[in-house]
Amino acid sequence: MNPVEDRLREALAARAAQSPVDPDAWDKAVARSRHRVFPWRWPAWVVRLVPVAAVAVVAGVVIAATTLGQSIGQGARPAGSASTKPASPHPSASLPAGMASVVDQIPPATPFVPISLRADGHQVRVSLWFGYVPADAAAGLALCQYDSGGAYSGYSTCTSGQLPAGKLAQWAQTDGTGWIHLGVAAPQVTSVTALLPGGQTVQGTVRAVRGVADKVWAVSHPADSAAMLVFRDAAGHVVARLTTPKPSSPPSRPSQGGIPLFRYGNDTVTGYRISGDRIGFFEGGSSSWSDTPISQSALSVNNIGVDSGPDDLYGYAPTGTARVAVRLADGRLLTSPPTIAGWPGSGVVFWGPVALPAHTGLGYDTIVITYDRAGHVLREVPLLFTQ
Q1: 271, 316 contact by CB (below 8 A)
Q2: DSSP string spanning 359-374?
Q3: For residue 209, how many other CB atoms are within 10 A of its CB?
Q4: Which tens digits make up the pLDDT trace of 72-99?
Q5: Which of 3.30.479, 1.10.12, 2.30.30, 2.60.40 would CATH assign to domain 259-385?
Q6: What is the rounded CA–CA span in Å between residue 280 and residue 290?
Q7: Counting Cβ atoms within 10 Å, is residue 45 exposed (0-12), middle (13-18) or buried (19+)?
């Protein structure tokens, strides 16, 4: 057992004391643990390079802890001008503690959208809403979810709320269970169906959201199965397809091609290109990786740290980025050393480390800023919206 697993056990136990979570959730979570991992999307005490052997366990247990994670993905765009205030009063005092915490950080700009799904033997109620990152409404809408039901109770997360131009459906990376997939779709989409191996199909749900042009969708299928998600319009025409791949195992460290980034303790954090045109980071016997191809991920943020000290942030950014800074909620600006060139033709450079002061948390209003060689700001991106 390692400190990460110990903390996850404590989180699960704390959640069980507040709600009717299955007492065997830990064992069931471990059995369900083979789903993709986005280590930098977890809270500060979990988001770190963890031993490869422990990654799968950590991934499975995260479903049963309260407010574990800040997943990153895509979402919807507002219809015309939208207010940054809630569409109607939603007193957080009347909400579950985990949900109230997220609502306080991302106040709803739309009504809550409830969706009921059957996932891994549990009836799960997913509450979705759109809101804005505090003090940065110009960044666009965020899509948030809160799950309740069985071992899934208490999972909450937020992601970007922008449907990319030219796409009619997008899978939001807000899945903390391995079974439940959701996202946004264009107004003309009326249905979503998951096509599973062997010809089995699962019908999902598509719902309109008052005050937002795009719709939300959700579908549930076994975590160990790949699926093709098919989106149709009212006439039954296929308008979009998305693939949910079968969960992958932790990648092996490549034998060559690594780019040393910075020293951490007695080891060096090294970036590698791994299968699927992705980037993986390795340090000693630990690793973290992304399931998003480089071509679809313009800016990434990882974190590495130990329980007894502050964390360091690092990641990659588009070519042309000379340095990266992180602006905390209190206005402090933490700057990285000059970026390190990536592989020729990869389109990325590496940045970091940015050392966080001790006892500093990263909230939804943390901003990642990229600069060019002349010191001009290229982009200001809420941490919530990074890939």
Answers
A1: yes
A2: T----TT-EEEEE-TT
A3: 23
A4: 222 333 333 333 444 444 446 578 777 8
A5: 2.60.40
A6: 7
A7: middle
